[in-house]
C-alpha cells in the first residue's frame, strides 16, 4: 500500500527538464488561413457588387403557349372582370304607402308572383268601398228608370189605340210619346253611369292590389331594403326618409361574366370563342364558358372594349353577382395536318432579333442571356408565333441590344414590360 502511494506521488511530480512547447507557430498558421479567407470573401463580394452592376439591364416578357401536341385548346388572351346578372330588379310598390309587413329575407328564394310585402290598405280599401257604393247607386237608378220606361211605353201604346178611335185628344198621345222618349234617354244615361261606376270599382280593386308587392320573376333575394312601419314610394316623394324599394331579386340562372379587353387585343376575341373562367374565390375551379358578344362600343377613358361571356354552369351556389373572375380566351382546337407545323408559343415581336442572318431570341436563365435560333409563324397584333426554339413559360429579352452576346450576364429591369406579352396579358379591370 505504501509502495503504491509512492508511485502515485512520483507521477504527479513536474518534470522541469522537458523542452517548452513552441510558441506562436500554430497561431500564425491560423492567422494566415483567416487572411486568405477574408480576401476571398472580399473578392466574391466585389465581383457581385461591381461585376453584376456592370451587366446590362434588360426588359423581359414571358412566352405563352398557344397550342399543344394534341391540337388542344390554349389561351391566347387573359382578362379580368366580374360576374353580373342580366336579370336583376329592385322591387318597389307602385304607390306610396306605409309598409305593413315584409315577407322576405336575404338569401331567400322567391317564385314569380310570390308576395314579398304588403302596404297599409286603409286608403285603398276606402276608395274601393266608395266606388262600390257608387256602382250600387248607379245600378239602382238604372232599375228605376227601366220601370218608369216600361210604364211609359205601355201608356203610349194604349193612347195610340184610343187616338185611332178618336176617344182621346191627339195632344195627350203626343205627351205620352215624349215622356217615353225622355225615359229612354234617361235609361241610356243611367246605364252609362253604371258602367263608369263599374270601371271605377275595377280601378279601386287595382289600387287595393297595388298594396301587395309581388316578385316579378323567380330568383334569390340579395337585399332587404324596407322594414314594417317605413314609408315606401317609387318616386321617393318623402325625401331621404322614404324607401324606394322593398328588396332586390337576382335571377341566378342569368349570371354571366363581363370583362374589359384592351383595344390592342380585342382582335383576338371572336363570338362563340371558348373561354375558361376562374373565380377569385375558387382558384382551382375551371368553369367552361364562351363569348356571347363583343359590345360595339369602346371606353375612351380606359381604352377597353366590353365582352360578354356566358357561363356553362347554371345554378351553382358558389357563383354570385359581383364576384371577381379571371378568364382565358382559348384558341379553338383544330386538327393538325401531317405536313403542317404545330403552333408553339407567342412572344412579343420586340423579342425577335437578327443574329447571323437568322431570327433569334434571347432567353434569360440564371441571370444569363442565352441566344436561341427560332422559327417564326403568324403575326398576332404585336406578338409573333414561335414554332421552334422557345417553350411556354420561358422568359425572353425585349429589344435586345446589338452588343448582347450569347451567355452574357444581364439584369432584369425592376419595371418589366409584361404588358406587351401575349396570352398572359390581363385587360384592365373595371375597378
Automatic annotation (TrEMBL):
Keyword Membrane: yes
InterPro entries given in the database record: Beta-barrel_RND_2 (IPR058792), MdtA-like_BSH (IPR058625), RND_pump_MFP (IPR006143), YknX-like_C (IPR058637)
Coiled-coil regions listed: 135-162
Domain spans labelled YknX-like C-terminal permuted SH3-like: 346-412
Keyword Transmembrane set for record: yes
Keywords: Coiled coil, Membrane, Transmembrane, Transmembrane helix
Record-level GO cellular component terms: efflux pump complex
Domain CusB-like beta-barrel, first and last residues per copy: 257-329
SUPFAM superfamilies listed in its UniProt record: HlyD-like secretion proteins
Biased composition annotated in UniProt, kind: Basic and acidic residues: 8-19
Transmembrane segments: 29-50
UniProt-listed Pfam families: Beta-barrel_RND_2, BSH_RND, YknX_C
Domain Multidrug resistance protein MdtA-like barrel-sandwich hybrid: 87-233
Domain of life: Bacteria
Family: Belongs to the membrane fusion protein (MFP) (TC 8.A.1) family.
Name the record gives this protein: Efflux RND transporter periplasmic adaptor subunit
Amino acid at each position: 500500500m505504501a509502495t503504491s502511494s509512492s508511485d502515485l506521488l512520483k507521477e504527479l511530480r513536474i518534470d522541469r527538464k522537458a523542452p517548452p512547447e513552441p510558441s506562436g507557430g500554430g497561431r500564425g498558421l491560423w492567422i494566415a488561413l483567416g487572411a486568405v479567407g477574408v480576401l476571398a470573401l472580399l473578392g466574391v463580394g466585389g465581383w457581385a457588387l461591381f461585376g453584376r452592376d456592370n451587366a446590362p439591364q434588360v426588359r423581359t416578357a414571358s412566352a405563352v403557349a398557344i397550342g399543344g401536341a394534341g391540337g388542344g385548346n390554349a389561351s391566347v388572351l387573359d382578362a379580368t372582370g366580374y360576374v353580373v346578372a342580366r336579370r336583376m330588379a329592385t322591387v318597389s310598390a307602385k304607390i306610396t304607402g306605409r309598409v305593413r309587413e315584409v315577407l322576405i329575407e336575404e338569401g331567400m328564394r322567391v317564385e314569380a308572383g310570390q308576395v314579398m310585402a304588403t302596404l297599409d290598405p286603409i286608403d285603398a280599401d276606402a276608395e274601393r268601398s266608395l266606388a262600390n257604393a257608387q256602382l250600387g247607386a248607379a245600378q239602382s237608378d238604372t232599375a228605376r228608370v227601366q220601370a218608369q220606361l216600361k210604364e211609359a211605353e205601355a201608356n203610349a201604346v194604349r193612347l195610340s189605340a184610343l187616338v185611332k178611335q178618336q176617344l182621346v185628344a191627339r195632344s195627350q198621345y203626343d205627351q205620352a210619346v215624349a215622356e217615353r222618349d225622355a225615359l229612354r234617354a234617361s235609361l241610356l244615361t243611367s246605364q252609362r253611369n253604371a258602367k263608369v261606376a263599374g270601371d271605377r270599382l275595377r280601378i279601386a280593386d287595382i289600387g287595393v292590389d297595388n298594396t301587395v308587392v309581388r316578385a316579378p320573376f323567380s330568383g334569390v333575394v340579395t337585399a332587404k331594403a324596407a322594414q314594417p312601419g317605413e314609408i315606401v314610394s317609387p318616386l321617393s316623394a318623402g325625401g331621404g326618409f322614404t324607401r324606394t324599394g322593398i328588396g332586390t331579386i337576382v335571377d341566378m340562372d342569368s349570371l354571366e361574366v363581363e370583362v374589359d379587353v384592351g383595344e390592342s387585343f380585342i382582335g383576338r376575341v371572336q363570338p362563340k370563342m371558348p373561354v375558361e373562367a376562374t373565380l377569385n374565390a375558387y382558384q382551382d375551379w375551371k368553369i367552361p364558358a364562351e363569348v356571347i358578344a363583343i359590345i360595339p362600343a369602346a371606353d375612351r377613358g380606359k381604352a377597353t372594349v366590353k365582352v360578354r361571356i356566358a357561363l356553362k354552369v347554371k345554378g351553382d351556389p358558389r357563383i354570385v353577382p359581383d364576384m371577381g373572375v379571371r378568364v382565358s380566351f382559348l384558341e379553338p382546337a383544330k386538327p393538325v395536318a401531317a405536313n403542317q407545323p404545330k403552333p408553339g408559343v407567342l412572344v412579343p415581336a420586340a423579342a425577335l432579333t437578327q443574329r447571323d442572318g437568322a431570327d433569334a431570341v434571347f432567353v434569360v436563365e440564371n441571370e444569363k442571356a442565352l441566344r436561341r435560333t427560332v422559327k417564326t409563324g403568324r403575326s398576332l397584333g404585336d406578338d409573333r408565333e414561335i414554332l421552334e426554339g422557345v417553350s411556354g413559360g420561358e422568359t425572353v429579352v425585349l429589344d435586345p441590344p446589338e452588343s448582347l452576346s450569347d451567355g452574357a450576364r444581364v439584369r432584369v429591369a425592376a419595371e418589366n414590360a409584361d404588358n406587351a406579352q401575349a396570352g398572359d396579358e390581363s385587360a384592365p379591370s373595371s375597378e
